[in-house]
Amino acid sequence: MEKLMISGGRPLQGTVTISGAKNSAIALIPAAILAESEVILDNLPLLSDVAVYSEILEELGANVSWEGNQMRIDPTHIISLPMPNGPVKKLRASYYMMGAMLGRFKEAVIGLPGGCNFEPRPIDQHIKGFEALGATVTNEHGAIHLHAKELKGAKIYLDVVSVGATINIMLAATRAKGSTIIENAAKEPEIIDVATLLNSMGASIKGAGTETIRIEGKSELRGCRHSIIPDRIQAGTYMIAAAATRGNVLIDNVIPKHLEALTAKLIEMGVGIEELDESIRVIGKEKYESIDVKALVYPGFATDLQSPMTSLLTQAEGVSVLSDFVYSNRFKHVPELARMGAKIRVEGRSAIIEGHPLNAAKVKATDLRAGAALVIAGLTVSEGITEVTGVEFIDRGYDHLVTNLRELGADVWRQND
Ligand code: EPZ
């Protein structure tokens, strides 16, 4: 196993270019099997989850070629294969294979997801949607079995605003007979990105990005070419790192609107922000005000930026309160930050963070965003070296992390643990 070694205290300076969105890519790749001919995806992030997904499609007989940031997927000859085990177990979002295979083959056997373990990740809303479309869904020996004589459009109300359920139901509904309406749908930009791909394939999806999505089912979809939107969470992580190290960084290849909630909170703290068309400059300041942050569904403050933001708030004067209303227990980074001297108390869904300088320590990443939080914390510490284990988690969400940070002037390197 590897660990990240961080000798901090150096302000990040320069430009970082953001790659394609992980949480789009791992939905767009399975979506490609709904087409009868080749799908080309550009601006693909080079991440382990993306590599696992190409493995899964190749197992089904898809022809997948990946060159730089472009993946070509030819699903013409794929077959319906049960996948109770194997690569599907390596990642959380393997559940998208359920919607994609149900849409294409009217059947699927998918092993329950693995991936991040910060709290149990139910898929009851996904299953509710599939059943509404006419599928029978059973859970046998840790694998979800789905089967439908035919898929018929339905009206589905999501009890919980869920990104995964919204996308998964959209995948199956594009090949159902008739129209489907998803109400109380999630509005994240990644959902719009998947709908854009499906519409380029000939689907008819309206309302993606709003709480009501209408899908007209099609009997056949064709290949297309699609460029993935920039990763707003990766961008937000670098923005927070620039602020935490009092640096001056241009975050390039972003859609500023996707980062509105974070930008507003950084400005509230006293961070300097310059917004351009496709980039945001972050200018760190010596003093930051403590603030309150609520992680909510989009367009609220992203829960995926909650842990990195916790590290920044340790640098503010006074006491900040950060609450997560999406996940009830996404605070596994807090005890690790405490080992670095952070003064944080978790009460229910909230972390109460008292501004306090951090010191170097050996810490452990438990999920990819907690890992990012620990890296940011290490970057603020000028004395000693912070060691972060669990790098495999961080690599799932941040491609070129060490290269990017070193180009911004950080003294960070990988070392065998
Ligand atoms: C997506 O996960 C992201 N992952 C997560 O990012 C992100 O944190 C999350 O959306 C929220 O924005 C991917 O896109 C691969 P949800 P997802 O379904 O779709 C509950 C990262 O760090 N829920 O929107 O699994 C659930 O427990 C990852 O990149 C149900 O109760 O999240 C949670 O409390 C981590 N039943 C809330 O809804 C369901 O059937 C939101 O979950 C589904 C979800």
Any overview of this molecule?
With about 425 residues, this protein is of the alpha+beta class. It folds into two domains: about 1-20 and about 230-415, Enolpyruvate transferase domain (UDP-n-acetylglucosamine1-carboxyvinyl-transferase, Chain, Alpha-beta prism); about 20-225, Alpha-beta prism (UDP-n-acetylglucosamine1-carboxyvinyl-transferase, Chain), CATH 3.65.10. It has 13 helices and 23 strands. The protein has helices at about 20-30, 50-60, 95-105, 125-130, 165-175, 190-200, 230-245, 260-270, 305-315, 335-340, 370-380, 390-395, 400-405; strands at about 1-5, 15, 40, 65, 70-75, 105-110, 135-140, 145, 155, 180-185, 205, 210-215, 225, 250, 270-275, 280-285, 290-295, 320-325, 345, 350-355, 360-365, 385-390, 410-415. The strands form six sheets. It has a four-stranded mixed sheet with strand order 21-22-1-23, covered by helices on one side. α9 links the parallel β17 and β18. α1 runs parallel beside α6 (about 190-200), α5 packs parallel to α6 and α7 runs parallel beside α9 (about 305-315). It is elongated. The structure holds ligand EPZ. Ligand EPZ binds near residues 26, 93, 121, 186 and 327. Ligand EPZ binds near residues 93, 124, 125, 164 and 327. Its EC number is 2.5.1.7. Cell wall formation. Adds enolpyruvyl to UDP-N-acetylglucosamine. One of its GO terms (molecular function) is UDP-N-acetylglucosamine 1-carboxyvinyltransferase activity.
